[in-house]
Amino acid sequence: MAKYIDKDELSRMSEYIEKLRARCDVFEAEYGRRPRALCETHGCQQNENDTERIRGMLRDAGYEFCTDANEADLVVFNTCAVRENAEDKVFGRIGILKHIKERRPHMMIVLCGCMVQQEHITERIKKVHSHIDLIFGTHALYRMPELLYKAYQSRKTVVDIENSPGAIAEDIPIMRDAAHKAWVSVMYGCNNFCAYCIVPYVRGRERSRTPERILDEVRALAADGVSEISLLGQNVNSYGKDLDEQIDFAELLRRVNEIDGVERIRFMTSHPKDFSDRLIDAMAECEKVCPQLHLPAQAGSNKVLADMNRRYTREQYLEKLNKAKSKIPNLALSTDIIVGFPTEAQEDFEQTVTLLQEAEFDSIFSFIYSRREGTPAAKLESVLSPEQIHANFDRMLKVQNEISRRKNEAYVGRICRILVDGESKTDKTMMTGRTDTAKIVNFPGDKALTGKYIDVKITKAQTWSLYGEYLRKE
Q: How many domains does the chain have?
């Protein structure tokens, strides 16, 4: 059974939120405004969900928010450890912050999340970046108010990266990104220990929230007008294994499906070894569960899959995929692929290409292998040269881009119901939303449509998005 942070401890954090609010009052008296916080997320959806909680605590403490570090009085970077380029980006950003802080010495800089849960990274930050005021890891998220208050009181960097199997903190204030859709964490951590992956070391062991707490959260969101729920976990297919109650993720999906006000349900991420017939049946039978499946394959070679400790074969993966396709009409598929895993030879890579061609994914999230200190794969030498790996990566993208475009072109002429997310980030003259299959649809429209479900006729397809015409109802 998962360990929960007790109510007395959470109450103590509420007291520190009040102490921070008192500091904000003093700041306002001196500067004539409330202090502004910039919260920036690097990494996965779980990091996004954690940042929403960070913002919730800061909002309750009296902070306002901004998007420009030059205007911020508090900067919080929630970091990722999955790939080296994510870490490099953060180090670049905190280098820039040093110069801003020289002009605005009252600025507080906070680093949190997966990257700093690694002791060697935190030691590097302490030695090289003395302008960082607070560093805390994934297990100390709920303690942020206390840690931030201590950082204000201290003249030294405050650090809390205590290693822990993990615990669950309920009832943390949350400030969500959107009013019409929300992430809901169903579990935390991971027990799989894939050879390349740092997540179990920085996120802790798997621990499931009780179904009552999850369902209560979803009901409250639905009552507030949220219609799309995305259930979140490092491996949602392991949900319930550590609970006293006999429940699995398929049953949880069915219970969420019964909640009034919820119109769409999505989830991620699923580990193929735990992707069950029960879950396929639940997806097929629950009318609110979107016909969308993200099932990370990582590689198409059985040898590489074994070396990665993925615990399934190519054949088993494709069997599950085909079973899902046969039971769920119009199913959209996505996956993760790693190119250049140390033991991957050229013939192994070719098998990954044929996997893409056979599976016909709508989209993929693809990465060149990134060595992570502390993982088993970090000790291995690469079979292929960097030049070969980059050439393979480019060829794989070319193959997948052709598949993705062809899959998108099949939508031209269709009328799709989309949930409007808002103004397009790349073209301010367009609005954007998603189909139930998670296809991005851009269309001319009004901002007042944000959060609404509308019908759009698809008129044009590109590799990664669709364009359409809003069918206004008379």
A: 4
